[in-house]
């Protein structure tokens, strides 16, 4: 989101909305799924991480919408 990403260093709305949405879903899935190299995060921990990186790694508007939808069990 902030232009430091790989490979093209796109920033903000220059990143397609589809890619921004997939980034959120992929990150949440990765954090809440079992991995051989770390423990599974709780929903609350994962959402806190998304909020922490909102505006740098994630689109802040989409991140907040995603968080609210998870909390309302719409996703």
What layout of secondary structure does this protein have?
Blueprint: H1 17-32, H2 43-52, H3 60-71
Description of the structure:
The chain has 75 residues and is an all-alpha fold. The protein has one domain (12-71). It is built from three helices and no strands. The chain has helices at 17-32, 43-52, 60-71. 16% of the residues are buried.
What is the alpha-carbon Rg in Å? 13 Å
Structural class: mainly alpha
Number of strands: 0
For the termini, the CA-CA separation is: 22 Å
Helical content, roughly? 40-55%
* Proportion of strand residues: under 5%
Largest sheet: none
As for the number of domains, it is: 1
Please, what is the average pLDDT?
A: 95
Secondary-structure element order, as H and E? HHH
In short:
This protein has one domain (12-71).
Which key phrases capture this entry?
single chain; 75 residues; mainly alpha; 3 helices; 51% helix; globular
């Amino acid at each position: 989101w902030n232009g430091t990403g790989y490979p093209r260093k796109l920033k903000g709305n220059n990143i397609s909305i589809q890619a921004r949405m997939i980034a959120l879903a992929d990150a949440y899935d990765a954090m809440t799924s079992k991995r051989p190299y770390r423990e599974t995060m709780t929903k609350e921990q994962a959402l806190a991480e998304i909020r922490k990186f909102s505006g740098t790694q994630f689109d802040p508007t989409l991140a907040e919408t995603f968080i609210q939808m998870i909390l309302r069990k719409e996703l």
